[in-house]
Amino acid sequence: MKHVIGTVAVSAALVFAPMAQAEEPIRIAFVDPLSGPLASSGELGLRHYQFAVDEINRNGGVDGGRMLEVVPFDSKASPQETVLLLRKLADEGFHYVSQGNGSSVSAAIIEAVEKNNSRNPDQTMVFLNYSAVDPALTNEKCSWWHFRFDTEVNQKTAEMTDFIADNKDLKRIYLINQDYSFGHAVGDAARSMLGEKRPDIEIVADEYHPLMKIKDFAPYIAKIKASGAQAVLTGNFGADLTLLVKAASDAGLDVDWYTYYSGLLGAVTAMGDAGVNKVYELSEWHENIDNPELAAFAGAYKEEFGDDWRYMRVKFMFGMLAQALDEVGDDPAKVAAALSGMSYDTPLGQAVMQPENHQIIMPQFVTVLSRDVPNDLEGTGIGRKTIREFPAQSAVVPTTCQMKRPG
To answer: Do 24 and 102 belong together in one domain?
Structure first.
C-alpha cells in the first residue's frame, strides 16, 4: 500500500511505542520547502528521509535501541524564514538540522548554527546538508558544525570535465547556466578546468539566464545552433533543464548535454526521447547500477511511495549519522567530532567526510539516458546507463576552508 508524507511528521516512535516510552527518539529537523514552486522537491526529500530512517529503526535504531524521528519544517526556500525556524528549533531542543534545497538557505543555516552554538553551548546544533552544492559552503563559509553529504560544484565539474576531456572529437562547447550563485559556480569551474585539461576545446559561449523564469528557450537554442557547438554543459535543473533540452530537440539541434540533474523528479518524463543517447549526468547512484542491496532498497521505496528513489546519498548520510551515534551517543558535539574524518563503507565503496572542510568524497558515476536498460525512470522506458565510474579520491579538490574547531 502506498503511503504519502505531507508536512506532518510520521513518527517512528509511534511504530516502536514500547521502546520509545523508555527513551525519547532522537529528532532530526528536516528544513526544506514544503510549499510554493519547490514543494515537490522538498516533499521528495522528506519521503527519502523517512524511508531511510525507517530502515534504521527497523534494524534496532541507534545508540543501544533509540529510534530516529524526522520532523519536517517548511523553509519556504527563504533564508530569512529559515533563520526564524532555527531559533524555534533551538528553543525546542533540536540538536540535528538537515536541509538541501538552496545554497543561500544553507549559508543562512550555517551562520545561525554558528551563532547558536557559540551563545548556547548546552543547546549545540549540527547541520547535515544533503544537496546544497555551492563550493563556498565548504570553503570560505565552512563551519565545524556543517557536514555536506553531496559532492559540490567543483568536485562534480572536476569529474565531468575529466569525462569530457576524453572525447577527442569534441572541439567546441557551450556553457549555459542559471544566473545565480550555483550557476556561476558551474560556469567558473567549467571554464577553468576545461582550460587546464583541454585547452584546444573552444568555449564558444558562457551564458546565464534568469532562474526559473524562461518559458521558451528557442532564442537560446538558436544561439547555441549558430555557435557551432558540439556539446553543452549546464548545471540547470527542473524546468530550466527540461525546457532547454526539449527546445533543442524541437529545433533539430544535435548536441550532447553534460548535466548534473537530469535524473531528478520529472526530468526524464519531460525530456523523453529528446534525451536518449544525448543527455549525460554525474551522480552517486542510479537505478541500473548492479548492486542487489541498493536495488532492493530502492525497489522497496518505490513499492511504498510509488515514485523512484533518487538520492542514495540520503541513505549514506543517515548511515554515517547512525554510526556516529552508535560510537559516541546522543551528544551533538561528540557526534560532530565523530563525523569529522569519518570513513563509511557504502555498498558502492568507501565514503569519507574530509576533516579539513567536512565535504564528502565518494564514488560517482557518469551515465547517459538510454532505452537499453533493465530499469527505467517514471515509467518512461528510459533509464540511466553507466558510462564511467570515478573512485572517491577523484572528488578531492583544493579547499580554502580554515576550520575553526571548538575548544
So the answer is: yes
Bridge partners of residue 283, in order along the sequence: 365
pTM (global) more than 0.70: yes
C-alpha cell at 134: 555551492
Q: What is the DSSP string of 15-78?
A: HTHHHHHHSPPEEEEEEE--SSTTHHHHHHHHHHHHHHHHHHHHTT-BTTTBPEEEEEEE-TT-
For residue 9, how many other CB atoms are within 10 A of its CB? 19
The pLDDT tens digits of the residues spanning 228-279 come to 999 999 999 888 999 999 999 999 999 999 999 999 989 999 999 999 999 9
- At 104, which CATH number? 3.40.50.2300
Residue 78 lies in a domain: yes
Q: Is 324 exposed, middle or buried (0-12, 13-18, 19+ CB in 10 A)?
A: buried
C-alpha cell at 330: 546522543
Residue 198 DSSP one-character state: -
Instruction: Write the single-letter amino acid at 64.
Output: G
Can you give 352-405 as a three-state secondary structure string? EECCCCCEEECCEEEEEEECCCCCCCCCCCCEEEEEEEECHHHHCCCCCCCCCC
